[in-house]
Specification:
Blueprint (H helix, E strand, L loop, with lengths): L1 H13 L13 E8 L2 E9 L11 E3 L2 E2 H4 L3 H13 L6 E8 L3 H19 L4 H7 L29
Parallel strand pairs: 3-5
Antiparallel strand pairs: 1-2, 2-5, 3-4
Helix pairs in contact: 3-4
Length: about 160
Amino acid sequence: MPEKSSKIKKIKKEAAPQKEKKVKKIQYYEAVGRRKRAVARVRLYTVSPSESMETGNFLVNDKNYKGYFPMPILQQVVESPFIRLKSQNRFSGTAKVKGGGISGQAEAVRHGISRALIIFDPNFRKRLKKLGFLRRDPREKERRKFGLKKARRAPQWSKR
């Protein structure tokens, strides 16, 4: 029995509080964007002018957004809030996207970026709202009804 208590004491001595490491806190602006069934959690980081040499440093699901969205139209959708506010090189960011298709995901990222930009600077709200980037597009696919092939498409009628 005395052996167990000595082991416990040794463990307690080893678990003494150690010096805390200083962790550099990086400030970011986070927002959620949605479109159809897609949900994007976006984080924007401010970039100093010396670091902004590299353009397009925005990651979507740990990939460059140009690799994740291969079509130029979808890349323009993601870039559009930055381009309209003339702040392409001022921000870098990450986005985690789930659900939906690729176009819904691109528009969800745009919605999230726009919301995060407003948190960064409330003066951006007027321009982004005018462009329609702050409105969550409510259109979704209509559910399928029983007795029909799709939401409204009835089976082909035959006389005999």
